[in-house]
Amino acid sequence: MKVTIIGAGNMGSAFVKQLVLAGHQVSVTARDSAKAAQVAAAHPGAQAVAVAGAANGADAVVLATGYGDATAALQAVGDLQGKVVIDITNPLTADYMGLTLGHSSSAAEEIARAVPGAEVVKGFNTVFAQVLSDGADFGDGRKVTVFVASDSARAKQTATALAQSMGFEVVDAGGLKNARYLEPLAGLNIYLGYGAGLGTAIAPTWVHKA
Fold first, then answer.
1. Whole-angstrom Cα distance, residue 174 to residue 162?
2. CA distance 187 to 91
3. CA atoms of 96 and 117, how far apart (whole Å)
4. pLDDT tens digits, one per residue of 136-179
5. Is-contact 16 26, C-beta < 8 A?
6. CA separation (Å) from 32 to 7, 29, 41?
């Protein structure tokens, strides 16, 4: 697939790495163009592209920014009408130990409202960047699980295909409103990994036996 990654931070870089390894045609864009170029250069086969028009021609767009920057980032990359947008964001508080949304909405639902032409799917938000970068297979029959939630069957299918191509197990988590469950789940992972000092290796809690 042709995939555009928005964001050149830890998650964006990990996506570029794994999607290139999986054989996809990967473009990366970011507010800091030099950082996007650095990420692309580190993963031969990827290309850095300008923000304007970055979504053009893409089969999927991976939103790998902070939630606070998400809407502006999506609106800057071009026409998203009919585009599959994989939202990996979590609406975290400044100390990363809480959420700013929940119960009656979610980051994914708010993003979908902001870009109504896009087909938004929640996914990968429970996976630590280090785990994504290292790969889905732990070498002992276990694989990291990715949950996908969307009101669009096509968006789910696209996110599932990308996740599986990178070696992840996938669980269908229902409609987009179930991002209200997935985002607190990510918050729990973050607390356990960093707040409780258990490290990113806590992520294998969410695994399948092959």
1. 18
2. 9
3. 30
4. 887 777 789 999 999 999 999 999 999 999 999 999 999 999 99
5. yes
6. 9, 8, 15
Q: Tell which phi-psi region holds residue 82, choosing left (phi > 0), alpha (psi between -120 and 50) or beta.
A: left
Q: What is the tens place of the pLDDT at every residue in 25-52?
A: 999 999 999 999 999 999 999 999 999 9
Q: Rounded to an integer, what is the distance from CA 30 to the centroid of its chain? A: 15
Q: Which of 82, 87, 127, 119 is nearest to 106 (CA)?
A: 87
User: Which CATH superfamily, name and number, covers 2-209?
Assistant: NAD(P)-binding Rossmann-like Domain (3.40.50.720)
pTM (2 d.p.): 0.95
In whole angstroms, give the CA distance from residue 198 to residue 134.
18
Q: How far apart are CA 93 and CA 95, in angstroms?
A: 5
